[in-house]
Amino acid sequence: MDKSWFRKLFDRPRQRQLASIQAKADDGDAGAQFSLGFSFANRGKATQDYTQAAHWYLKAADQNHALAQLNLGRMFAGGQGVTQDEDKAVMWIQKAARQGDAGAQHDLGLRCLRARFDGLPQDALESNLEAYKWFRLAAAQDYMGSQAAFEALSLGMTREQVAEGNQRATTFSASSSNPVPA
How far is C-alpha 130 from the chain's CA centre? Predict the structure, then answer.
């Protein structure tokens, strides 16, 4: 059965829009490249293409598109469309976090929490301080769960450790011009 007349009418602008995004992405527009990557990653199960998503995210990530970096990092972490590689995952997520992406900062906070169990006991304090810093930075942007995460983490820290975590967040913010409220 043919498409109804109104379906044809509304499909045309979408097709033109996708063609326009594709043309912009091919010309090197990072926002369009991210959009294509997002589109490939979030289609229905039958048409989802993680390999194409990773391809376009990489193009945008190489141009410092923070969300593309975060999504590419998560794809490397899960082996979606790329070979699973935790080192590359962390590298891309760190790049996004350093640009101020709250999701990436929260993700790094979680990774630091997990890392404290993987390393030596003396490394646990450093992991806690870094987790606190990243959660604090994400919480300053109202990223869901980050406020509770850094507050819960602080319950197991000394006053000096909390002060150190706050200092790290402030120093990061001052160097990246992303203010963190006191």
Answer: 17
pLDDT at 119 over 60: yes
15-99: CATH, from 1.25.40.10, 1.20.58.760, 1.20.950.20, 3.40.640.10: 1.25.40.10
Please give the pLDDT value at position 2: 58
Integer distance in angstroms from the first to the last C-alpha of the chain? 63
Specify the amino acid at residue 166: N
| Per-domain boundaries in the chain | 15-99, 101-177
pLDDT of residue 84 exceeding 80, the answer is yes
Q: Tokens 């979606």 sit at which residue? A: 80
Radius of gyration of the chain (CA): 20
pTM of the model: 0.84
